Amino acid sequence: GSHFLRVVCRYYAARPQTPRTRRSGRHPMKIFIHYNPSTVPEESHKTLKVTLPKKWLPAPPAPIIPLFTGSYNKTLSPTLDPASLCLVDASGRQFSSSVNVKDQMSAGQDVYVVDREDVDASKGYAPLVEEKPKKVAPPPVPAASALPPANTGPSHPPGHVRCVRLGCQRFFDPSNPPPCTYHTKPPVFHETAKWWSCCPHKKAYDWDSFQGVPGCQSGVCTDKREEGTSKAG
Question: How many helices (H) and strands (E) does the chain have?
Fold first, then answer.
């Protein structure tokens, strides 16, 4: 018995080791899902910190709303119907139901659950990632050498991260964070009215005006959020 074990150990020790390859795909993404309409009492508002599994990132965000409503309906009222809701970002732009999560959301982002009727009534929401236009035959152009180089780089400089402060959301270099003016409480969307909870006296009725409401707090950009998340299956 011991002789056999020694032979087996020598065999495995002599075998060439195949390095492990890291599985492709992105890390799980943490987001913050909020439900805070002005039509329900504050005790019925909810914020859910969720870590989306990697398998959800290369797919549309369809499972996110049922995930949230399942958690909400266990302890709060009124009962939410996933089919009557949609997702928007902090500026009120609607997330597309046909674009993958990884292409329109970022880690640490604030996502808001709102009623579809409010979205339709406002006529101010637009997909965060617009569909690509159909290809058409281009008109004659000068020689390639005379054209400026195409912009094939990323949408933001490498190594930059998104500021998580409400009302900012811009990308910045984490080694040199710039000054930041932001809001301290989340936005509220009710029919055509839009306002920040921290600045309720500054209501807006179109998206240009809403996005132009100045922040009420000054600091520097950051990508850090408090820990303690709920992990999705």
Answer: 4, 11
Side chain identity at residue 202, one-letter code: K
d(CA 166, CA 47): 14
- For β-strands 179-182 and 193-196, DSSP reports them as unpaired
Collapsing DSSP states into helix, strand and coil, what is residue 186? coil
Q: What is d(CA 83, CA 64) in angstroms, rounded to the nearest whole number?
A: 12
Cis status, amide bond into 78, omega within 30 of 0: yes
pTM for this predicted structure: 0.54
- Beta carbons within 8 Å of 167's beta carbon, 6+ residues apart: 90, 181, 182, 183, 196, 213, 215
Tell me if 22 sits within 8 A of 175, measured CB to CB: no
pLDDT tens for each residue of 70-119: 999 999 988 999 999 999 888 788 888 899 999 989 888 999 999 887 77
Of 159, 34, 55, 173, the residue nearest 109 (C-alpha): 34
